[in-house]
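RECORD TYPE: inverse folding
INPUT: structure tokens
STRUCTURE:
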């Protein structure tokens, strides 16, 4: 078979076939009466083998070794190809993500593109200072897609940079809440924590709804952070979690402050006082937890609280009794 016929049947150009021959990959021994190359059936099979191996990413040198070296073992080469392919995919994915971010920012010209690229690089810098400055400038100076800010906030470990990113997200609109919600379901505890902390600083109804749902999150850290934020927003459903925090001694001062904020609503004050008293008088809890619950009553107004404190001033636990007596004196002095 002549080279033109082989090219048509194999899909390999005549020029490439000549290149294979120059490298010694294919060696057609046959010749026509006119002296042209004549490819045998074995030659054509070898061409198909060459193309098959090339489709896996092998170089022509590696193809030659695979076909001609009886001792050639593919395992290591295949492993290397897998690694190289993964690296290439990762690089291409990173590039695609960067391009999408730039496109989402809707740059008006190349100057805008360059500014966005510079900001993206700054957000990925090893310098915490550069990341912080980039986060602060992302709101007013250079518009950055909210996806970029969310990704940065969920991965940031420096507290100052994280605070700047949360500040930027709080000013980025409703879309930030929906994207951060995905972080609440992350398998990584730190990511879940960063997500709820970021949501807690977004002052809109979508964020409040997410925080409300987070009260039933399997992660106790998420539940506690959500309860503190909801307490400041006047959401009564946070009360049980806040009281649990006081009992457990976890951010108990912040939890007591949140209960105090909720108790500014007269309709909630008696409910909160009743719940605190129930925990004090029912069930078995440590003495230190009872003292914290008594202290939490200090900023809860209403007759229910006053009666509870009067009863607690005679409590068997001297520390609780003294705490209640002191709080009563302060309330009577007002």
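DESIGNED SEQUENCE:
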């Amino acid at each position: 078979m002549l080279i033109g016929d082989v090219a048509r049947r194999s899909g390999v150009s005549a020029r490439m076939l000549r290149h294979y021959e120059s490298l010694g990959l294919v060696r057609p021994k046959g010749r026509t009466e006119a002296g042209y190359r004549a490819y045998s059936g074995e030659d054509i099979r070898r061409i198909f083998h060459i193309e098959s191996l090339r489709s896996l990413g092998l170089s022509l040198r590696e193809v030659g070794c695979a076909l001609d070296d009886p001792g050639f073992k593919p395992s290591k080469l295949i492993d290397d190809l897998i690694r190289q392919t993964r690296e290439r995919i990762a690089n291409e994915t990173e590039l695609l993500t960067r391009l999408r971010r730039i496109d989402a920012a809707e740059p008006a010209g190349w100057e805008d593109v360059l500014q966005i690229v510079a900001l993206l690089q700054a957000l990925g810098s090893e310098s915490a200072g550069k990341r912080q400055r980039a986060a602060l400038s992302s709101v007013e100076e250079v518009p950055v897609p909210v996806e970029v800010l969310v990704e940065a906030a969920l991965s940031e470990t420096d507290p100052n940079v994280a605070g700047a990113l949360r500040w930027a997200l709080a000013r980025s609109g409703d879309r930030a809440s929906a994207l951060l919600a995905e972080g609440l379901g992350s398998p990584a505890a730190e990511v879940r924590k960063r997500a709820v902390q970021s949501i807690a600083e977004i002052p809109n109804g979508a964020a409040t709804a997410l925080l409300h749902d987070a009260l039933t999150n399997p992660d106790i850290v998420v539940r506690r952070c959500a309860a503190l934020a909801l307490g400041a927003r006047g959401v009564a459903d946070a009360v049980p979690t806040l009281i649990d925090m006081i009992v457990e001694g976890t951010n108990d001062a912040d939890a007591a402050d949140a209960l105090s904020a909720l108790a500014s609503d007269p309709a909630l004050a008696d409910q909160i006082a009743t719940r605190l008293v129930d925990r004090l008088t029912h069930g078995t809890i440590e003495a230190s937890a009872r003292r914290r619950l008594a202290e939490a009553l200090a900023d809860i107004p209403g007759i229910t609280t006053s009666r509870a404190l009067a009863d607690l001033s005679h409590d068997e636990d001297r520390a609780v009794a003294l705490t209640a007596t002191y709080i009563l004196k302060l309330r009577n002095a007002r």
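NOTES: Residues 273 and 305 are 5 Å apart (CA to CA).
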